[in-house]
């Protein structure tokens, strides 16, 4: 289970038991999205965090054959929402885990624990998932970098030839998989998921605590009354809460892409870098290299905006987004009556944030932008950290390459069948001396 900051999802993976040490065979067979928010939102009512998981667990009981329930390991990994809750109030986060654990242990699966996973693991397992599903690991091919944009944190992970890991050990993870060594660069930026970065930007815009905030990242005609205490209720912004602010402010959209870009840029710090090169906030980042897969909110947002085609020049992408942001809010709502209003209101911000994070933050250029592919699934399985996490915990990826058979499986079947037929014929022939002799000569009486 992926207990994310915005929601929890249960993934069921399946593989043939006799081949569990072989790759390319694990498949996601089911995804159940838990109703309601992520488990970290239940800090004030932890029992409800456990209850929220029940329906998906019942569904899992139906999907996994009854006789396999006890053999099926169940893991829950929590990401940035629980990292933040744990920072703000560790006893509340413990209570949420207790409730979740209590709820999960009531089911007949082999429960393996619920825990917060580190940002490094989140990045590295996302990279493993993408490259495992692409079959790049098994075949020893050039790997694909992984870009994950969540609600509360974002990860970048890739292999770069000029990176040996010694400059910043906390950004490197080494693996030996199928006989190949990988030295992976990975970083998770806490607070730089799209929900927390929106808070940081709005906190920046409203630092003086005004009653009205004019927001270039929301459409013209958009107005809403928002609560200062809700906006600042996160460790990502809590230290910036204005002292004499009123309880609420009026949030007014003005839909100006260029101003929005400038406002988004204010959440990144580019002032110092003690390494050979940095992305932002003084974090090491080696030279970008190779193709990238960008998933989760990268995909949701760019797919909604019809901007997943990265062969379109970056300047044209920005121009389209500029026009979209300037569109009146009434018109946007009329055009998309089926989309959740919260998502709809935020696509201009989210699109601008994605382009700014990629170009200003990670240093993608007009040329290297086309190396990114916005993806949701690979061969039927969702891109995300869960598959890599469970492959690791179940020891499914061997460090050494499995002995390659001289013949593929169907080849063996044919050879064995032919030998069996030959042996049978030989056996019949060897019985020949025992056959009753029948003579065609007329018998002389
Ligand atoms: O990784 P963390 O940071 O813990 O967060 P998460 O796992 O909950 O994050 P997701 O990738 O599920 O979602 C990322 C963000 O995208 C939002 N989101 C999900 N579906 C969306 C959609 O269809 N359109 C727009 N946004 C969406 C969601 O509310 C989050 O703000
Ligand atoms: Ca996530």
Task: Give a brief description.
By secondary structure, the chain is α/β, with parallel strands linked by helices. The chain is 36% helix and 19% strand. The protein has three domains: 2-149 and 380-393, 2-Layer Sandwich (Nucleotidyltransferase, domain 5); 194-374, Nucleotidyltransferase, domain 5, CATH 3.30.420.150; 402-431.
| Shape-level CATH architecture of the largest domain | 2-Layer Sandwich
Strand order of the largest sheet: 8-9-7-6-13-14
Q: Which structural class is indicated by helix and strand composition?
A: alpha/beta
Shape: globular
Bound molecules: inosine 5'-triphosphate, calcium ion
What's the main sheet like?
6 strands, mixed
CATH class of the largest domain: Alpha Beta
Kindly report the CATH topology of the largest domain: Nucleotidyltransferase, domain 5
- The percent of residues in helical segments reads 25-40%
Number of H- or I-type helical stretches:
14
Low-confidence stretches: 438-445
How many individual β-strands?
16
* Name given to the CATH homologous superfamily of the largest domain: Exopolyphosphatase. Domain 2
Q: Output the radius of gyration.
A: 28 Å
GO molecular function: apyrase activity; ATP binding; GDP phosphatase activity; ribonucleoside triphosphate phosphatase activity; UDP phosphatase activity
Membrane topology: Multi-pass membrane protein
Subunit structure: Homodimer; disulfide-linked.
Subcellular location: Membrane, Caveola; Membrane
